[in-house]
Amino acid sequence: MLELSDIGVRFGGLRALDGVSLSVAAGEIVGLVGPNGAGKTTLFNVISGNLRPQRGSLHFDGADIARVPAYARARRGIGRTFQIPQPMHTLTVAENLAVAQRFGAGRVDAHAAEEILDLVHLTGLASRDAATSLSLAELKALEVAKALATRPRMLLLDEVLAGLEAVAKRRFTQMLAEIHARYKLAIVIIEHDIETISTLCPRAAVLNFGQLIADGTPAFVFSQPDVVASYTGTVPDA
Prior knowledge:
Structural class: alpha/beta
Number of strands: 10
Shape: globular
């Protein structure tokens, strides 16, 4: 479904991404992990069309999308969330979904919106002001709902669990598993919590200093000395 090859991004003298190659199959769940500043969000920006790489190729469903703008990628089936929830001010929760539907799907579908709100447990808040009356967990659920409203076949989740306490994090993880089961879409999730990645994702890919240093099952990836060192700054004894 998604094929990245030799992606390179520089910001002045900083190599944010350095020769990253990654593939994601239809319906696959992949955890994208790595320390702060590793290049994870930059990679999401490249995939979603918010940033153009200086080198490399990007294909989605076999088509070259390197020069396709963000709105057109959304309509091809790439949806995403952002690290900091970005509700549309002065709009209700339901109106936020309607705008997202027009952006990604080209039309408003009230029935689909109701289904999404039910799935993310926001049905009772549909008429509330999205920017002023939601908790952090609810704002993050709305981010996921807006991404789902674009009718994606691939969902990019950028630290949607960050800042949540343990119980809320477990509930959110279960919700994501239910979303995957319902829509059968591919999910790539940026997350620092190893337990969450190990629970939700059959596969993990690790970035460090803009390079992909490991890719495989969570058990394999989190046992690799390079991965351990990237998190702790030390290499474990052999």
